[in-house]
Each structure stands twice: as structure tokens, then as C-alpha cells.
Design goal:
single chain; mainly alpha; 11 helices; about 0% strand
Length: about 190
């Protein structure tokens, strides 16, 4: 795939059209309608599931420009889900990871970003610490979702900081983050 730096260029537009054609091939109107009626915030929803997106990612391979192009297409659910699958891990810098986190619009996007990209970054724990005390519920959710992802792959080295952040968050009584923090605390208590 060619280098794409700007969504406003004809090349960027053509690249998006290719992906939207691919999404259209896999579309599922029933799932799309359910997501819309459940309040999904995206203007364009094709109703693809994660295995279908993984197939598309495997077909296209890793490409930083394409991943950025898709991530910046925030009106399309599938673009936002596919982008982390295409982004080469070794290229994602801390500042860009923070930008992506700060542009998360819902739990599905947060879960996918954590699972497909953020958990593989060597500074993932720094991201948890940075966002675990943020004012935004969705950003704190992302931090604790990332912590669970790291626990699952035995990649937590700073247990005390993570568990203290989870305990502090539990005291806030946030419905979005509470279940994640409870899971984190229970995981550490078992050890």
C-alpha cells in the first residue's frame, strides 16, 4: 500500500473506498441495526465481527499509514476496529498511543485497541498509570482494560501500583470501571 499522509488527498479517499468496499462485502445488517439501536456512536456501521476484521487485517498486513488513515476515519466503526490490527507495534510511539487512547469513543473500541495493540507495547504499564486517574470514565476504563490484558499475558511488573490504582478507582463507584477493578483486585489476591 502506498504512503498516505492526509485524508483529504484523493489517494486517502481511494484507500478508504477500498476498505469500505471490503467492509461492505462482509456486512451484516442485523448486527449493524442492533448496534445502532443499542446506541453505538458511529455514523457508519457495517456490522462486521472481530474474526472478519482479523481476516481483512491478515489480507492487508501491517502498514502504519493505512492504520492511521483508518483510525482517523472515526465515523466508521469498522475502520476504528481494524486500525489497531494493522499498526506495526514497533512503530507506535508513546505520544501517538496517548493520542489514540484520548480519541476512544466507546468500550468496544477501547477493548479492541487494548487487545490488538496496546498490550504489546513495552510502555503499556506507563499508559495504565497515566490514564488510571484521568477525569474521563472511558479513559480510566481503557487503563484498567489494558491492565487486565497485561495480567492475562503475565506482563505486569508493577503489581503494587496497579492494585492501588484499582482500589482507588473502586472507591469512586464508577459503573464503567468498577467490574474491571474488581477483577484486577481479585486476580492479585489469588496470587
Amino acid at each position: 500500500m502506498e504512503n498516505i499522509n492526509n485524508l483529504n488527498t484523493p489517494l486517502g479517499h481511494e484507500e478508504l473506498k477500498k476498505f469500505k468496499h471490503e467492509f461492505y462485502t462482509y456486512r451484516n445488517g442485523i448486527i449493524a441495526d442492533r448496534l445502532r439501536s443499542a446506541g453505538d456512536c458511529h455514523k457508519i456501521i457495517f456490522g462486521l465481527n472481530i474474526p472478519q476484521l482479523v481476516n481483512i487485517a491478515n489480507e492487508y498486513g501491517k502498514n502504519v499509514e493505512t492504520a492511521r488513515l483508518l483510525w482517523n476515519n472515526s465515523t466508521c466503526r469498522e475502520s476504528r476496529l481494524l486500525a489497531p490490527m494493522l499498526f506495526p507495534i514497533e512503530i507506535m510511539q508513546y505520544d501517538e498511543a496517548c493520542q489514540w487512547i484520548e480519541n476512544i469513543e466507546n468500550i468496544e473500541i477501547a477493548d479492541n485497541l487494548c487487545h490488538k495493540l496496546l498490550k504489546r507495547l513495552n510502555y503499556a504499564q506507563e499508559l495504565i498509570i497515566k490514564y488510571s486517574t484521568h477525569d474521563s470514565d472511558i479513559l480510566r476504563y481503557t487503563a484498567f482494560r489494558l491492565a487486565i490484558n497485561l495480567i492475562c499475558i503475565n506482563a505486569i511488573t508493577n503489581y503494587e501500583t496497579i492494585i492501588n490504582a484499582a482500589k482507588h478507582e473502586m472507591a469512586s463507584d464508577c459503573n464503567m470501571t468498577g467490574p474491571l477493578c474488581k477483577e484486577i483486585i481479585e486476580e492479585f489476591v489469588q496470587e
